[in-house]
Automatic annotation (TrEMBL):
InterPro entries: Glyco_hydro/deAcase_b/a-brl, NODB_dom, Polysacc_deacetylase_ArnD, TAT_signal. This is Peptidoglycan/xylan/chitin deacetylase, PgdA/CDA1 family. Pfam families: Polysacc_deac_1. GO terms for molecular function: hydrolase activity, acting on carbon-nitrogen (but not peptide) bonds. It comes from Micromonospora mirobrigensis. Residues 76-257 form the NodB homology domain.
């Protein structure tokens, strides 16, 4: 190869290298811009993760929202809560047990189910408390603030109509919290209630008494206990064991209260 041909070859290689480098840089800029634009449409920009909504004045009720897992108290109090109902299969059984043993509880109702099975709970919640558990048990943490608000508002109105009492407590499905859930809860003046301890039915198949003993041993003053009155047959382990659980906790000196009563007791400490 002549010197001149070699020089032309090196020039072409250099030119191609420059072009490739320029293309890579342009591609990096384009990728960064695309990511930025995409992020503006994802949770950090008004989506599920965002606890703010727009740049104008925000309607957020009292302007704050509390989140509770349990209550700090030395008094032996426990709040029994039931999620996902009402349903015609097990909710009446749970209510019958609670009535027979004179135990109050807090029911976090799914709005659509409350409307469909209104006859299951109508007139039967006098000693109990109701909370909002969303309209159709969708994951609120995947929805933006407007969608969460509309979902909870719809459920709120239905629960109030069916039970005669407007719920003041909210438990999002699966306990999933996102910024949008916080925003909607504040806007609706809800208190967010999660739980300290939940039933572990899968560890005690066909052993309601054993399951009850496990839960009784784990309860501490101020515990919010999570159960379900709708679901798979596995959950019957906890529901069939309710009498043993109640007797066991009373044997340890515990008194059953609603979540709101527990919160009030905690505020007095």
């Amino acid at each position: 190869m002549s010197d001149e041909a070699g020089r032309w070859g090196r020039r072409a290689l250099l030119r191609r290298t420059v072009l490739l480098a320029g293309g890579a840089a342009a591609g990096a800029v384009a990728t960064a811009e695309s990511s930025w634009i995409a992020d503006r449409r994802l949770p950090l920009a008004g989506g599920p993760a965002s606890a703010t909504l727009g740049s104008r004045f925000q309607q957020v009720g009292a302007g704050a929202v509390a989140v509770t897992w349990g209550v700090r108290t030395d008094t032996p109090l426990v709040a029994l809560t039931f999620d996902d109902g009402p349903g015609p299969q097990w909710t009446p059984m749970v209510l019958d047990t609670l009535d027979r043993l004179d135990v109050p509880a807090t029911f976090f109702l799914v709005g659509e189910r409350a409307r469909r099975h209104a006859d299951v709970v109508r007139g039967r919640l006098g000693r109990h408390e109701v909370g909002n558990h969303s309209w159709a048990h969708r994951d609120l943490a995947r929805m933006d603030a407007t969608a969460v608000h509309d979902d909870l508002r719809r459920s709120h109105d239905t629960i109030a109509e069916v039970t005669g009492v407007a719920p003041r407590l909210l438990r999002p499905p699966w306990g999933h919290l996102g910024g949008a859930v916080l925003h909607a809860a504040a806007r609706l003046d809800y208190r967010l209630v999660l739980w300290t301890l939940q039933m572990v039915e899968g560890e005690f198949p066909d052993d309601p008494a054993g399951h009850a003993r496990r839960i009784v041993a784990d309860v501490r003053p101020g515990t919010i206990l999570l159960a379900h009155d709708v679901g798979t047959r596995q959950r019957l382990v906890a529901l069939d064991g309710l009498p043993d659980l109640i007797a066991g906790l009373r044997g340890r000196g515990y008194r059953f209260v609603t979540v709101s009563q527990l919160l009030h007791a905690g505020a007095e400490v």
